[in-house]
Automatic annotation (TrEMBL):
Organism field: Microscilla marina ATCC 23134
Protein name (database record): Membrane protein, putative
Coiled coil residues, start to end: none
Tree of life domain: Bacteria
TM regions (residue ranges): 6-28, 37-57, 69-87, 99-118, 138-161, 173-192
Signal peptide: none
Keyword vocabulary terms for this entry: Membrane, Transmembrane, Transmembrane helix
Keyword Transmembrane found: yes
Length: 195
């Protein structure tokens, strides 16, 4: 049940902000970068898990509207950072420092995204031992759902850059530009709902 809940949390159509964030996070990567991608989405899941755990234990409460605006803002920031990247025909290996910064950002944004589901998760969690089991099952489902999205994006990236022979830079601009536009729409929509 909790595995399914985690999987559906990332795959469901009403989870579009989480899907768009994962898509934006991956925009600068290609199939050859699969290890970095796996670390990146795992860092996001760890942040997400931490927030769910502390909210499930009652240590954190949050304003839903504020969290939803911050989630959209995280997509916006990720897209802007991607668009600022200079990607030549072949993506250079980022430095260890750049990679660690990117993993840290994914973790921090995972904390914010976890708050988006915290209220629902808190209502289904019980004691500490029960919480650990539910959180583990939920996060395994979430991670598998993210991997499905990652594989789909990598397949589309391969088709775009190899089969259609387009530049990796163009792929980044396409994904990041779309994520940027959607995030702005979400921010204005959510700010309007908050007013």
């Amino acid at each position: 049940m909790y595995f399914d809940l985690g999987f559906e949390h990332i795959i469901a159509l009403d989870a579009q902000d989480h899907i768009i964030f994962v898509v934006a996070l991956m925009a600068i990567y290609q199939l050859k970068d699969w290890r970095k991608i796996l670390i990146l989405v795992t860092a996001f899941t760890l942040g997400h898990s931490l927030t769910l755990a502390i909210s499930g234990l009652g240590y954190v409460t949050s304003n839903t509207t504020t969290v939803e605006i911050l989630i959209a803002f995280s997509i916006l920031v990720t897209a802007i950072v991607n668009l600022g990247q200079k990607l030549p025909k072949t993506t250079p290996q980022p430095s260890t420092r750049e990679a660690l910064i990117r993993y840290g950002i994914a973790f921090c944004f995972g904390l914010i995204h976890g708050l988006g589901f915290a209220r629902q998760f808190k209502s289904i969690s019980g004691g500490i031992s029960d919480l650990i089991f539910k959180l583990l099952a939920f996060n395994i489902g979430l991670e598998i759902g993210q991997i499905v999205i990652v594989l789909l994006i990598l397949l589309l990236s391969f088709l775009f850059t190899r089969q259609l022979q387009k530049k990796e830079h163009d792929w980044n601009v396409l994904l990041s530009g779309a994520a940027l536009g959607i995030s702005l729409f979400l921010i204005f929509q959510r700010l309007g709902g908050a007013a």
